[in-house]
């Protein structure tokens, strides 16, 4: 079970006993997903394609959901970066629009699947929880930076604000209502920024 | 395997050919759920308990998720009513706290299960979508009433506001973070009501 990696290129093509690298397995997982769809995705198919043993895969990813989440994360990184536009309105708008847009493709299908699995499988839940905890730390920076610039009140809890936006996007993803107008996005951002009560006169 | 139940009370007791009423099936479904848990829940078990044919059940509920959602809705009605406290802050706070509290029990487990199933089964998705569309119409009334009282600006989209709160609760349910402090609830409500940008002087 020791791994004598003698890897060239980006994918291991060695004999079956030559364990594939993490990177090769991730690439194989993505290829299996794109070819077979989510319903045809299995650790077995990934192992076959990566020419890796299933135990090797399970050593790094304790569940199918954990592997799917890593594929998701790699794909998402390509399309989605935390915005840094210098003002809080544009940053939050770009953050929300970015989530909604990214999830309209394969990334959204993968993430829905992981969220669904997490409701029944403890390993999937653990993988999703760890991922989300990290994402919350990253996304709260959007609001913290705005606080440093004086654009957002110091008493505001940064994490709660971005959680409100990402939860809204989750809700849209899970009910297949991602395709929303710019006006709706702006209404959500306006609510978070300025609230819904009447503006003081003057 | 036949259950010679000679039960009086609130449940239909006809012979197997005597189709059980919807109400009896719902009660049987709830009983099966409480006894066997979600993993032991099946249309078959419900049919046995209600002494109904499976086709009878499927005529009314095209999927297990649809039946679960009805059980959920019946249970939730007991604990959860749309608040009407005469002011928008208390109404929205009670709405959000009500969702978070209701979901800490069995209702939450059922709803999570339905949301998860909806990500893979078209019938479950249809049932959830229909349910949510109706709920959105009901919950938006909270904001509309506040607009009628002049507490909320007329240009605000009522549905979007309650969706932001319910999505936040969905996110907490699906990541098992329902147990939140009153301060956090207030921070969410404050954000929706008054926003996060600095308050105008004076």
From TrEMBL, chains A, B:
DNA-binding region positions on the chain: 42-61
Gene3D superfamilies the UniProt entry points to: Homeodomain-like, Tetracycline Repressor, domain 2
Membrane-spanning segments: none
InterPro entries, A to Z: Homeodomain-like_sf, HTH-type_TetR-like_transc_reg, HTH_TetR, Tet_transcr_reg_TetR-rel_C_sf, TetR_C
One Pfam family in the UniProt entry: TetR_C_11
Keywords from the named record: DNA-binding, Transcription, Transcription regulation
All copies of domain HTH tetR-type, residue ranges: 19-79
A GO MF label: transcription cis-regulatory region binding
Record bears the keyword Transcription regulation: yes
Protein name according to UniProt: TetR family transcriptional regulator
